[in-house]
Amino acid sequence: MSRSVRAICLGGMTLSMGAAFAQDAAQPLQRVEVTGSRIRQVDLETAQPIQIMTQEQIQKTGLITVGDVLNQLSSAGSPDFSKGGSLTSNRENGGQYINLRNLGSNRLLVLVDGKRWTQSVDGFTDMSTVPASMIDRIEVLKDGASSIYGSDAIAGVVNIILKKRIDGGNLSVYVGQNSEGDGKSKDFSLTMGANSDKVSLMFGLSHTEQGVVWANKRPVTGFPRGPKYPTEGFGAGPWGEILPLDFSWDKVLNHTGGALGDGTGADSRNPANYHDWDGRPEDNFNSASQMMFAMPTKLDTLFTKGTVELPYNMTFTTTAMYSQRKSVSQVAGYPLQSESQPDFPVYIDKDNWYNPYGNWVQGAGNGQDLYFIRRTIEQPRVTENQNRTLHIDATLAGEFELRSLPWNWSVGYNHSALRGSLLGTGNVNLLNLKKALGPSFRNASGVVQCGTPDSPIALAECRPWDILGGPSASNPEVIKYVMATGQATYGSTINSATADIAGEVFTLPAGAIGIAAGVERREVRGYDLPGQFEQSGYSTDLAGNPTRGRYTVREAYAELNVPLLKGVPFADLLSVNLATRHSDYSNFGVTNNSKASFMWKPIKDLLIRGTWAEGFRAPSVGDTFGGGQQTFDDYLDPCDSLYGQTSDPTVAQRCAAAGAGAGFRQESQTGPITSAAGDQSPYPFMAGAGNAALTPETAITKTAGFVYSPSYVPGLTVGLDWFNVKITNQITEITATDVAEYCYVQGLAPYCSVIKRDPLSGQIISLARGNANIGALETEGLDLSIGYRLPRTQYGQFGIRSETAYVDKLRDQATAGADWTNYEGQYFYNRVKSNLSLDWSMGNWSATWTSRYHSGVKDRCYKVNAEECSNIGGEASWGKNYNKLGSVTYTDLSVGYKTAWNGQVMVGVNNLFDKSPRLITTSAASSSRVDADYPIDRFFYVRYNQSF
């Protein structure tokens, strides 16, 4: 093995292959397949930058899921789906996804033992479904690899390598929690294996839990806009608010108590018991009081793997795994209003007994229907997402020699299936609501009954509701009558058959020419079916249309590795690698993608490498066949005269032409927005509609770098790689804020066409955001890796590992020819992320000290003043004004001890110095301004491993 690779192995570095490959010098070196190439090689150095994490390193992080571990990589961006996204309505919510280089989780290909893993209908791979206890190592290829693996390998490839054999068994138990006593996490795993000369069997089961963190348990998360603004960001209140149908006045019920709905309402039938609506905090509701800050999950996994050696140098291997994940989200009770579903409005009937301006109170013929607003805090909205993953693969592989040169082949079948179901409570059945707020009267027994005295409706069929009386007037039977239970099912299936062959065709003076080739046929099916009642639009649950679709793809690839020079002056090694892949999709046609890379060692200690690669991402089933779903988006209208971009005369002119002229204010559920954070729309928008005309995204990836292992400093390895990825024909589902800004700030007509404003108020009452091939996305930067295994001392063995990512460019282009918008250095998009670890071991003891550094970022100004806006007038992607947030560093510590009975105890603290969370304005958790994907406080854990 080359000296530089040995240094990497000894140092525990992640520049190339890890210590799992280190072999005794007396053993023959084996040819192995490295992620990013199908050609087996003895020399493990590659032309592509690869980062490795071993099982030992995974356990030292104190994290229990693959997703959490990989999201801490320096090259990983902010997750697409936050742990705090309890208001997120997609099927991925509750899973864990890796956003490599901030290019999107669906542009990262996830493999397990080199085989594609399950994907959702929208093309996302939930990393939490892979049991961490069965992992030998994780290889992260930070390079485009579509020519080798096909679609999705644009940002890179994560290849999870499972253990190949286990002798005996291992039991591992883990518990951890935040210093405040919440976020309790548990992990239990049992793995066992038995082996003979010809047969190897493995079995594993695991149970993992990540506990809930409630927003109301801490002051920093207990208020939607933070403790400094304890009355801002509230949602619609639980006390009856009424308006005539011409909106000529606006009143709300008198009540005691504050913004938690904990008071008592006055008699709702008396018009004198109402006051004019003025937005006072006690008439609204602190929705954070009922919301989860971080959602809980549970994962159970069964795993088996078997290998049988057959005659003629053949091996049969099969793997089967079943995982079941359950996640739960809770948000505040529904902010109900007469037009919660605009196509099915519900008003308080003029003949309703509880209508203070109805015929029963005002006198026959004098009543009027009322528009109402009222949050149903009696029953928070809870969604339970059950996700089941099944993976089965079988591979027959063999080796042979041709002209005394080694060859290998394999044929395999891969089946991955994902099935899921959602069950939601806390939404309202509008059909029953219409009856409950329809005509009603007090019968002879003094009981309020639906219908009229001449045509009564039995209480068993209808329950009248004093909706304006608030929670204190609620009847549990009435709440049960008007509430709805929502359902949905979803799933996807990937079946693929593969055949591969690789070997050495002949030998040159510099080494053997290696080739690999293969074919694959893959079928992808998916569906997402909201319940029939939700599809009908008669529920306040987000109405959606069904998604069904399938496509097939036939592919063939070829790879060639040519060693050009070896052992000559200025070329201890020089080789090139070429690869190409032809893909034929049933839904859009043909795409071809190629790659070229080189390795050059001018001297033994220095490896210089580079790649140029074409990549692509095929439209997912959801991209093409998505039915679309309603969503109440948080957004900022650029036409808002206080927090928008109307200081720009061009923007002001466009807004005025659209009906949002001078003095226009964006309205939330409770009145005008109060900050540049925007607020939730009171009207349902439409998101996620598919587009059958979509074609693949295309990408060009370029990398260049070096790995230096100086012979005069044994154990030291330094690597530096430059990367540039440019994606064109981008398949984009953009946010509501993006749509509005593209229309009014950039003046792009296609986006204006999907926005509808109310002709009187100017408010956006309809907005559609779906998928289209538009614009481009580009990122560029550097990855720096340093590893140093120090000479052993009387104080133990020390090692240093460091991974740093620097982003020089991250920008997108809304449409071809439009101006580029830069995001690097803004919130979510740190210019620098760096992880530094110091490892120590001595005898049975070991310890790891890790620092995680994130550079400062620009954030939106919550208020445009000196205290909340450090750079008034400063430029950012959203326009003028930004607030600079300083850098943050988190420190973790773990200590381990190996017992005399083959056990190991590990204790640790993450966020050792209890770094306080910071408040941000750019979208964070659903409940507060704190980002749920950063530590909320100090986290303690202990793990015990027992081998037997």
Automatic annotation (TrEMBL):
<dbReference type="InterPro" id="IPR039426">
    <property type="entry name" value="TonB-dep_rcpt-like"/>
</dbReference>
<keyword id="KW-0798">TonB box</keyword>
<keyword id="KW-0732">Signal</keyword>
<feature type="signal peptide">
    <location>
        <begin position="1"/>
        <end position="22"/>
    </location>
</feature>
<dbReference type="Pfam" id="PF07715">
    <property type="entry name" value="Plug"/>
</dbReference>
<dbReference type="InterPro" id="IPR036942">
    <property type="entry name" value="Beta-barrel_TonB_sf"/>
</dbReference>
<keyword id="KW-0472">Membrane</keyword>
<comment type="similarity">
    <text>Belongs to the TonB-dependent receptor family.</text>
</comment>
<keyword id="KW-0812">Transmembrane</keyword>
<keyword id="KW-0998">Cell outer membrane</keyword>
<feature type="domain" description="TonB-dependent receptor-like beta-barrel">
    <location>
        <begin position="353"/>
        <end position="912"/>
    </location>
</feature>
<dbReference type="Pfam" id="PF00593">
    <property type="entry name" value="TonB_dep_Rec_b-barrel"/>
</dbReference>
<keyword id="KW-1134">Transmembrane beta strand</keyword>
<keyword id="KW-0813">Transport</keyword>
<protein>
    <submittedName>
        <fullName>TonB-dependent receptor</fullName>
    </submittedName>
</protein>
<dbReference type="InterPro" id="IPR000531">
    <property type="entry name" value="Beta-barrel_TonB"/>
</dbReference>
<feature type="domain" description="TonB-dependent receptor plug">
    <location>
        <begin position="45"/>
        <end position="157"/>
    </location>
</feature>
<keyword id="KW-0675">Receptor</keyword>
<dbReference type="InterPro" id="IPR037066">
    <property type="entry name" value="Plug_dom_sf"/>
</dbReference>
<dbReference type="InterPro" id="IPR012910">
    <property type="entry name" value="Plug_dom"/>
</dbReference>
